[in-house]
Amino acid sequence: TTMSDGPPPLNLRELAEGLSSPRPPTTPPRVDAPLLGASRLEVLGGWLASTQDRDVPAPLDRARLVVFAGDHGIARQDVSRLAPTATADAVRALVAGRGPTASLAALHGVDVVVHAMAVDDDLADLPAAVTAHAVRRASGDVRVEDALTLAETEAALRAGAAVADAEVDAGVDLLMLGDLGVGGTTVAAVLVAACLRKGAVDVVGRGSGIDDAAWMRKTAAIRDAVRRSRRHATRPVVLLQAVGSADTAAAVGFLLRAAARRTPVLLDGVVSVAAALVASRGVPGVERWWALAARTAEPAQALAADRLKLDPLLDLGAARGGGTGALTALAVLRAAQVLAASDAADAPPAPQAPADAPAVDGPAAVDRGADDEPAPEGEPTGDPSPEVVPGGRPEPEVEPEPRPQPGPEVPAGHGVPAGPVATGAADEGQRVGGPAASADSERPSR
């Protein structure tokens, strides 16, 4: 099957309309050790504050995990340890509050929302909201056919954007992106290989825990799909249509719209990172709104994260997927926020500007401020008026004495330097180093 000619695909920038970068993150010096560099937690706190447009990050009290679920035609090639029906079972379990994702969400007080985009089951026994955005039942086998039609691709993209709008309107302060679907890591590997021009062996992983025989089948499937997709690498929407899936397309729209609504997103596994890579190719710079929760064993995730310049918060060898990595990393983000707020509360007050010196009558009060540097010894100041000692009164004018004639040389060793006796410089030095110097010494150092 080949992609049909028709109207131009959706421009991803439409989904990110109004996008702006977060304010530049700042990391204040550590209160306990100001000479040490910023720790990773302090950097995370600075990132959170920048996405919230604040100097100090606010608590993450309203985090939400959004999971997009879908089946993939490529799973029929035995590329997964799981049966194709496992996706529907996992969706039912998560909606019912069972399984590892639901357990971690309950631990952290996080609500979970599931959207079945292309599950090969009608899921009629579940609430209507679960299937409200579904575009089809299972995506196509990307080895030999397009995953979606162009209309389905755009519908999935807009559905993801609508989900992000609804969550932001509900008042969430952090979104987490998860996925469910047999064959999802295979599709993610294809997207990463196509975007980064990598071979199948560069991106293939063990996914659900496959053996060597399944690994070889998976590698061959990725190779065939990448060959079909190579010419579409620079057209993100067409790429999603050719070798993506409904759930990855929804994730792309979700990520773009959340960034446009100035809401940070915590990415989970290889599927969400692959979606982030596709989104960033359509709208460069949008990745500043995302953080990567945990490193997995999938090579495709590492390649995509490196291109996006996203360092995982955790490296625990986690491979459960479904949002478990993001939920685990949420505790780290919350710790970063608490530490940033504590450091800001304990920080010493900013130094105040030194108080002005008392006002003095006469031209000297105008020409020389209290903070001006004194003139070097022996150099004229350009002020013919009588000099004023700071805080004192003008010295009375004294009739100049007749200029003494040079006297005899005084030999060295009698308490003064050899040469003629000179006056004036010593007096000037007393005025600079006396009251004026002691006044300066009381100012706080900068």
Summed up:
The chain has helices at residues 40-51, 86-95, 100-108, 150-169, 184-196, 200-203, 212-229, 236-243, 246-260, 270-282, 299-308, 324-346, 363-367, 425-433, 435-441, and strands at 63-70, 111-118, 174-180, 265-267, 290-292. It has 446 residues and is α/β, with parallel strands linked by helices. The protein has a 5-stranded parallel beta sheet with strand order 2-1-3-4-5, sandwiched between helices.
Would you kindly provide a written description of the structure presented here, covering whatever features stand out?
- With 446 residues, this protein is α/β, with parallel strands linked by helices.
- It contains 15 helices and five strands.
- It has a five-stranded parallel β-sheet, sandwiched between helices.
- The model is unreliable at 360-396 and 407-446 (pLDDT under 50).
> Which stretches are low in confidence, meaning pLDDT under 50 for 5 or more residues running?
360-396, 407-446
Structural class: alpha/beta
The major pleated sheet works out as: 5 strands, parallel
User: What overall form do the CA principal axes indicate?
Assistant: globular
Instruction: Sketch the topology as an H/E string, one letter per element.
Output: HEHHEHEHHHHHEHEHHHHH
Rounded mean pLDDT is: 82
Residues in helix, %: 25-40%
User: How many extended strands?
Assistant: 5
